[in-house]
Amino acid sequence: MPEFEIRFSAYIASPDLEESFRLLDVDSRVAIPISTPVRVLVTSSDVIHSWTIQPLGVKIDAVPGRLNQCSIISKIPGVLYGQCSEICGANHRFMPISIEFIPINVFKIWALKIAGLE
């Protein structure tokens, strides 16, 4: 698969969405292939955020002007939830983070769609 950058925005899921957890789910989850080591690069454009996924044991700070990284991997498909654990501004604390681990063939379709190459 060719290398390309994937960027997108995710917002707190509407309470009207079925199968969403209040204050934990987002409208557009990050998709990650299962059984594949993934390097996550984290930065910020405004204030310090703390990207935390408790089930993975990952907590990494997003600092303006700095680039932090961590590696994650999952052997099973599923959805994991986390939150920003910094009080980084009005209405910022507890910003939800949702990661969905999916099979590699489904991930390739998702990645091409998000990158606009489909």
Please give a handful of descriptors for the protein shown.
globular, two-stranded antiparallel ribbon, 5-stranded mixed β-sheet, Immunoglobulin-like, single chain
Report on the structure:
By secondary structure, this protein is mainly β. The protein has a single domain, classed as Immunoglobulin-like. It has 1 helix and 7 strands; from the N terminus they run E-E-E-E-E-E-E-H. The chain has a 5-stranded mixed beta sheet with strand order 1-7-6-3-4, with helices on one face. A two-stranded antiparallel ribbon has the order 2-5. A hairpin with a 4-residue loop joins strand 3 and strand 4. 12% of the residues are buried. The mean pLDDT is 79.
Domain count: 1
Strand-pairing-aware structural class: mainly beta
The share of residues in extended strands comes to 25-35%
**Residue share in helix:** under 10%
Strands side by side in the biggest sheet: 1-7-6-3-4
List the helices and strands and how they pair.
Blueprint lengths: L29 E4 L4 E5 L6 E5 L4 E5 L5 E5 L5 E7 L11 E7 L1 H11 L4
Parallel strand pairs: 1-7
Antiparallel strand pairs: 2-5, 3-4, 3-6, 6-7
Short characterization:
The chain has 118 residues and is mainly beta. It is 9% helix and 32% strand.
